[in-house]
Amino acid sequence: MKKSLLFFSLFFFGFSARAELLQNPLGCADSRVFPKEKGAKVYLYPCHGRIRQRFFLKKTPENYFLVLMPPHLCLSNQSGEVVLRSCQGNSEEGWVWENGFLRQGALCLTGDILKKPLALSACENKKGMRWQFLPEIYFWKHKKTQPALKPGEVREEIFFPR
User: Fold this and answer.
1) In sequence order, what are the residues at sequence separation of 6 or more whose Cβ sits closer than 8 angstroms to the Cβ of residue 13?
2) Are 92 and 76 in contact (CB under 8 A)?
3) Distance in angstroms (rounded) separating the CA atoms of residues 94 and 60
4) Cβ-based neighbour number of residue 139 at 10 Å
5) Kind and range of the H or E element at 4?
6) CB 42, CB 118: distance < 8 Å
7) What stretch of H or E contains 11?
8) What's the pTM value of the predicted model, to 2 decimals?
9) For the chain, which residues make up each domain, given as ranges?
10) Using CB atoms within 10 A of its CB, is residue 136 exposed (0-12), middle (13-18) or buried (19+)?
11) CA–CA separation, 130 and 102 (whole Å)
12) CA–CA separation, 15 vs 71, rounded Å?
């Protein structure tokens, strides 16, 4: 019941959600192509704000779900690889947001080389592990991304999940 309710809310309420770019100091999370199949890898790519980089956040009491809009696929840990797949509402899709880190257990989402797939690795205070959510409207209004976060720096609240 809990999983089906989560899927229902992700699918039906996601259409009107505010899009955000998942950005670290080096680039943005990007599917590179319009993902039609499950298991498509997610890459770090220069920020451009097109549909391949637009995510919306679904907050639950325990964690966040990051959903690419459309085709409404969840950012997921599949055997250590970061991929997009149909939203199931399980622990592989849930991310804990903590001080700029997106983590699952002791592993953090890492994007440290442009045009390479995102990965999960041991959490450290490195550039490629510090993420923020940049509202799409800000990106298009200013035609730029925010300056990179320095280790330990916290951005204004508007750039973090609600």
Assistant:
1) none
2) yes
3) 9
4) 22
5) helix 2-13
6) yes
7) helix 2-13
8) 0.75
9) 2-159
10) buried
11) 8
12) 10
Beta strands 64-68; 54-59: pairing state? antiparallel
pLDDT (tens, 9 = 90+) of the chain, 162 residues, equals 445 444 444 444 444 456 788 999 899 999 887 766 678 899 999 888 888 888 888 888 888 899 887 778 899 998 889 999 888 888 999 999 888 899 999 999 999 888 899 999 999 988 899 998 887 766 666 655 555 444 444 444 333 333
Q: Return the number of other C-beta atoms located less than 10 Å from residue 55's C-beta.
A: 23
- Fold for 2-159, please state it: Trefoil (Acidic Fibroblast Growth Factor, subunit A) (2.80.10)
